[in-house]
# Entry
Amino acid sequence: MGGFVKNDLAAKRGYTYRLTRRQFLVATSAATLAACAPGAVTPSASSSAAPGKAIKIGLLLPFSGVYAELGTSMRRATEFYLKQHDNKLANRPVTPVYADDANVTATGIAATQKFIDQDQVDVMMGVVPTPLAYGIRNAVHAAKLIFIDTNAGGNALTRDTTNCTPSCKSPYIFRASFSSYQISYPIGDYLSAKGTKEFFLAYANYGFGTESAADFTTGLKKNGGTTTGNVAPPLGNADFAPFVTQIKNQPTKNVYSFFSGADAIGFIKSWNSLGLPAAGYKMYGAGFLTEQDVLKEVKELANGAITSLFWAVELDNAENKKFVADFQKQYPLLPDVFTVQQYDGMRALDEALKALGGDTSDKDKFVKALEDVSFKSPRGDFAFDKATHNPIQDIYIREVKTQNGQTVNTISDKIAKVTDPGK
Amino acid sequence: MSLELVFQQALNGLSFGALLFILASGLSLVFGMMDVVNLAHGAFYMLGAYVALSVVQLTGSFWLAMLAAPLALALLGLVLEPLLLRRLRGRHLDQVLVTIGASLVIVDVIGLLWGRDVRSLSAPPGLDGSVTLIGGVYPVYRLFVIAFGVALAVAMSVVYRRTKIGMLIRAGVGDAEMLGALGVNTNRLFASTFATGAALAGLAGVIAAPVFGVQPGMDTDPGLLYSLVVVVVGGLGTLSGAVAGSLLVGPADTFGKVLFQDVALAVIFAIVALVLLLKPTGLLGRIRVAR
# Structure
């Protein structure tokens, strides 16, 4: 019976997928049974997509490998949202299906195919590394599976690109996090408009780092700014002293950088031990440079760094205050930016389902409902850009300060309603 | 590059090389003595760093951590050698497999006990400052690392050449069976050699932590990757090889990364390939006679 219900549901959704032999046998025998004894089919089973039935969410996250902490944080956010909402989105109970990509693209692609073929999830969420998001794009698009990206920030995922290389937007793909343009271009534009026009670049030499540096440079040039050179250590670099030494031996004092996690810690520590603050150098960057995972290790060494992001735990709005307080009642730690991304992804899905009365059988209506979602998020006003499905969001300019023994990102300015250009 | 910059980068390269020597010395020792490629060496290094993290958190003393981490790893080595390696003596592939297995278990246990957060350790008070050298300030800790690396190499060399333990080790490398026939308890010798190798990995974990950080993935990069590179480039299983390897790889990797940053990741492998092409045994390696 289970097989029959699932396949019936999938057919209604317009899914095309491979049928395993077992599924085929279960489905055909169930169908035969149903044909022999129509009375045995209960009304609820025959209208399987009707409100009230459990909605299955496939969450593809790294629970092992270098991004394990991000995956754990996003799983926590999912559980937190569900706990707050009686394990229901709209009127439908939720069955989360977690898969570990271990930060290996091939593993993640296989897990996505399993979501489509075997688990037959209604919605897919998650994905931390951009190469994985690009890697599953075509499979998700072909299966018409609604995918809400809750981290990977590569620009191409929500853009028109030539020959869809390395990726391109899809009606079925939404992004609840950010595009790298959004955390890099606006701060370049902002700083050069304020008169700080000359920058040296330092970024992790991989797709996301180079993209961020390029977007920052474009923003800078809009108001006549320039870059004077760069250093680009490989991602996961062990020793940052050689690169910081290069920075110290060139005259441009303002340095825009893109590093996160262990790289950010290594960079900031070398920056200080080689005496760059005393020599007048000033650190700027995309917000991940100074998120909590980094600040709790480097503390006041990061003071004075100016970064941009769509959120900060200190953000002063009612939703964020409530969000942080509620989260801390459940968990003995502060929420991080990954928590917010996943939480907002859940919220967006919840709002769309409410608008649909829980009925996800019509894929086009589902897409439309998500496009129309707008709500007040901990990060500020949240809505999807209808043209790209990337969020329209405020970007905050933040400065690291140590106050009362706590090193935090203080909000110094806001760039309202930043939209990804979409190409 | 100005002369000042070359000088500063040379210092960076030297201190990086010193760290690599401390990291690779244990691997080299175990390989030379026991003919075992211990692929758990990176995991030992990682465990040393995490033990140090806890000791520093509990006691506030980096120096205590520098004692405790090698000690903890030595104990682990004393347990693991008889448990896993003794019965596999001479079976190289099985040893490789079993040490990979051990490293997976150790890394996962670290994840369970300490979490999978990115962590770091600060240089101890007294070494956390800077001194003014040519071209500006330079961190004292990196100078300490160079001194420590030199001291460790000298100490190991003295033990190796001038003490009875050193004599036993050299004899064991030459012919372990004969050594046993002469009445030396080779089981005990091998276990203590393996424990010493593990302790050196643990020591590297502490000393490298303020520079390389403490995070998931450190067991392979920089841990196992760089120690294998140093040992292979320098010549398998000799102390002088490990010294030569780290003296070449440290500066070459440092200069290579900043001069050819678009291929920075490949620099280290280019060094390996070049050395092996010109001298297949490594810089100071000797041809090993199959036993």
